[in-house]
Amino acid sequence: MASLMLSGTGKLTFLNCKTQNGNGFGLSGSDFNGKSLISPKTSINAKIRVSNLKRNIVVRSSSSVSSSRPSSQPRFIQHKKEAFWFYRFLSIVYDHVINPGHWTEDMRDEALEPAELTDRNMIVVDVGGGTGFTTLGIVKHVDAKNVTILDQSPHQLAKAKEKEPLKDCKIVEGDAEDLPFRTDYADRYVSAGSIEYWPDPQRGIKEAYRVLKFGGKACLIGPVYPTFWLSRFFADDWMLFPKEEEYIEWFTKAGFKDVQLKRIGPKWYRGVRRHGLIMGCSVTGVKPASGDSPLQLGPKEEDVEKPVNPLVFLLRFALGILAASWYVLIPIYMWLKDQIVPKDQSI
């Protein structure tokens, strides 16, 4: 029997899962270091059914876990202005530096499976689409003329425009937290590697709900929170690495139903998430009714028109880049461990 491993501390109830003797699922939880977190009889405020014991977690949550880490944490690049300039330079090497370690073609295709891109005539929005790497996976299943790539970075979008399979896609500069699409517009909403830069993730997911048609599905792909202390330190300094239960809560609060979380990762991670991943899970939810999300929110977290002290900006930017460099080294380190550590052992 496989064990379910959650990186956070949220408590869960396992339902509709029976062992051969009919006495319950008998599932034990553990963190990514093998320490037990959840006993077989754990019981509280969330419903979980497991559709694939090795890879998928399907969750319907009514829990009230904390929706973010303490606001005092720096997260130097979790702001639109810092992210804009971060990608001004990263766009030059994004496809060649980030993707091989954290966002491969195999991972992309696996992460998009729950989106159920089953009709070439579907209208799809790829929010935070950047260089179009994820969009290349979308247009395998949907005609490019029906796909819109949205990003706040013109430098990233310029790379997308150069890709032949994407020539018929619509290219739009825009804000994930204030989408320029009408309500009930799209059949599918996809966003990969974008939420980590949103000052207000709940607002972005609320927007995903709004722009989808009744019965439409959102697929959000993002990082996972690490358990190793040094990786947590750099993650919290760099950008937002949500916990799995936070993704589920954001989707549930926005009004989505049938919320599912699927873990993804390079083969050499061997299911261990001690260091987190820039692309670590794929979360989906279905819009159950037409119209806007029932969730009411206040003003935006970040006013992009507000003047910024240039010295403070440069300091934050420099510290954010230093923290980000850790996650360039991690894939190299993990790949080397994969070559050395026996295949039957976790790393």
UniProtKB/TrEMBL annotation:
Alphabetical list of PROSITE patterns matching this protein: SAM_MPBQ_MSBQ_MT (PS51734)
Regions that span the bilayer: 313-336
Record has Aminoacyl-tRNA synthetase as a keyword: no
Superkingdom of this protein's organism: Eukaryota
Protein name stated in the entry: MPBQ/MBSQ family SAM-binding methyltransferase profile domain-containing protein
Keyword Signal assigned: no
Domain MPBQ/MBSQ family SAM-binding methyltransferase profile: 75-284
Sequence segments annotated as region (SAM motif I): 124-133
Family that this chain belongs to: Belongs to the class I-like SAM-binding methyltransferase superfamily. MPBQ/MBSQ MT family.
GO biological process terms, semicolon-separated: methylation
Region of interest (SAM motif II), ranges: 169-182
GO molecular function, one term: 2-methyl-6-phytyl-1,4-benzoquinone methyltransferase activity
Keywords: Membrane, Methyltransferase, S-adenosyl-L-methionine, Transferase, Transmembrane, Transmembrane helix
Region: SAM motif III, residue numbers: 210-223
